[in-house]
């Protein structure tokens, strides 16, 4: 059975409209470990050995976060800088993540149509998430289709609940087509 590690990276998860739902929906699923980084490291002092062991123990890694300022919350960047070390995650001897899968799941206040050439943000979501794909490539991981949920400001409670169901289905899917993005 595939083991999935979900890194929930939200600086105020309790106030979240969707990330809180997603974490609750996927937690308790068979083979899933949910790890809330801001709760684990309120002082930002990341236990590198612990995090590397967690990554090694799982087959699929999910980065779940709110997408703002065209990137992830800053603790995820620090996590990547601290945990994905030379000789462990990359470099000639850095093979610990080879063959694992990386999936990015983002929530956005803006609508998907804002993230198109000619749209308000000018760039597509896959273009803006390219650094995560590059990280996946550098570490020998397989980059899976992004799960994105947009237009949060206009969604009903039922829509938000449905997004959690779709997120779990996507994050735990056994096989993926080569689609670059799943939009809901």
TrEMBL record:
Q: Give start and end of each Flavodoxin-like fold domain.
A: 2-169
Instruction: Write down the SUPFAM superfamilies for this protein, in alphabetical order.
Output: Flavoproteins
Q: Does the keyword Transport apply?
A: no
Gene3D superfamilies from the UniProt entry: 3.40.50.360
Sorted alphabetically, which keywords does the UniProt record give?
Oxidoreductase
Classification via Pfam families: Flavodoxin_2 (PF02525)
- UniProt keyword Oxidoreductase, yes or no: yes
> From the Swiss-Prot or TrEMBL record, what is one GO molecular function term?
FMN binding
Recorded hits in InterPro entries, A to Z, give:
Flavodoxin_fold, Flavoprotein-like_sf, KefG/KefF
Q: What is this protein called?
A: YrkL
